[in-house]
Every structure is written in structure tokens, then in C-alpha cells.
Automatic annotation (TrEMBL):
It comes from Neolewinella antarctica. This is Secretion system C-terminal sorting domain-containing protein. It holds the Pfam family Por_Secre_tail. Residues 130-198 form the Secretion system C-terminal sorting domain. InterPro entries: Secre_tail (IPR026444).
Amino acid sequence: MTLTNSIEGEDITTEIMEEDDEHLFFFAFAEGVFSDPTGDGNIDNRADAVNYKDVDENGFPVGLSTNWTTQASMGGGEFRVVLKHQPGIKSATSTTDDGGTDVDLTFTLNTVTNVNDLRDALRQQLTLAPNPTQHQLNWTLDGQPGGDQLEVRILSITGQVMQLHTSQSPIIDVSRLPAGTYIFQLQTDQAIVSKRFIKAN
């Protein structure tokens, strides 16, 4: 894993490696998703299986490097990563209750293993209307779960970002755009999907 602070331009990975005796990643995942390791991760129980591939100067795991093997037929679920900062208290038995939390992220696991297949499926679910349009563009994404983080970009045909929206409003005001062809780009938790539309006079 690599971690960066894009706001400050910092490489957090390097900091963790330099202070590896103070940092420990914990993981949780849906039961049955992985064939190796099995179980549901070690956030709830430190002794549960996780395939750490790196250790600190004391021989304790870190978690920047791990190994995961999915089941041949996996279901959905979630994957959670917690980074604990444990200066002076990291040990073979320290848990997520020890130290401060630097990172706590939860990802949605998809059953689609081919990104192109996922994009194609999302593109079929995405509807833009009216197209062409003069004033507003209405969009819908069938089957999109409520609460998902969505980001909408309106791009010129050359890729320049003309508008950026982070709300889930299904109506985009395009009245100020010059007439021409544009790209509606929707970023979901799963993938980025794009469709063209025409802004008429």
C-alpha cells in the first residue's frame, strides 16, 4: 500500500516505514471473500489470520505489504483498513484499542473482476436526458445504492474540466456552456463511467 497526503504533498508511506515500530495496520473483511487468509480479519481479534508480508525492527507486522487471495466465486461485502499509531506500546498482542487511529477506511468489494465489464454495465445504467439539451441535463444511474459517494464532471471534448459537482442532484445546469459536444463523467465508488452529450444553442 501507498499513502499520500495530496493536500500537503507528503509521502505518508515513507513516514510509516521510518517509524514502522510505531505503526500497525489492521484489516476486516466479509466472511468467505478470501480463501487466503480465511475468516473476517483481525480488527475484532488480533490473533485472527492476516497475511502480513513486512515486519518492523522488532519482528512485529506492519501491513504496508500484504497478500490476499479471493475465492473462485466470491460474494460482495466490505473491506476495512485501520492504521493504528502505537508509539511505545506496539507489541505482538496490541490491538485496535491501543494507540491513536491514523486511518480508518472502508471499501466496497465488487463481484465483477473485469473493470471493463463493470464500466460497460454502469454505462448501460446511466441515462442522460434531454440529449441534445439547452439548459439542464438530467441524469440517472439505475441501481445506484443510496449514500454512495458520487462525483460528476462535465468535460470538454479535449478533456478539460468545465464543471465539477459532488452532490447527488440528478439535475446539472449546463446553460452557460458554449454549444458543442461534451462528456458527462460520473465517478462512483466502483468505477468511472462516461457518456457524451450535446449542448445546443
